[in-house]
Amino acid sequence: MTNLNLPKYSFRIKNKENKLYIFDRIRKKDLILTDEEWVRQNFVSFLHEDKKYPLSLIAIEKQCLVNELTKRTDILVFDKTGAPHIIVECKAMHVKISQDVFDQIARYNMTLKAKYLVVTNGLEHYYCQMNHDLKQYDFLKELPNYS
């Protein structure tokens, strides 16, 4: 798989019926290893191993209702009270991070009201802190560690 702009992590990857699968330690099952899944699994490892967020507070493909449509967040991290804390939108490495991607995650956050938003394609990462009162976000150099 492509090297990402993240530390190197160890994964359980296997070949079944000529398809590569990666073990998702959050959902505890093997998933087809697409480019986007590679980014997602690496970012989950980054959140857990480098930023110290407990796996128990991380959800993948969590449903949310946006304008009466059911959508799924790529990664949703909760705070200690169970409230949404970080929403992460993952794209494949070849997908350019555009305003459309930021608009997508901002729509999710109208419902979820997370404090931080992250957009990544594994090569570029954008971290934002929300100001819900002003309905805007400020870019950060990095995502804060779990505390």
UniProtKB/TrEMBL annotation:
Highest taxon listed in the record's lineage: Bacteria
Domain Type I restriction enzyme R protein N-terminal: 36-144
InterPro entries named in the record: HSDR_N, tRNA_endonuc-like_dom_sf
Protein name: Type I restriction enzyme HsdR N-terminal domain-containing protein
Source organism of the structure: Lutimonas vermicola
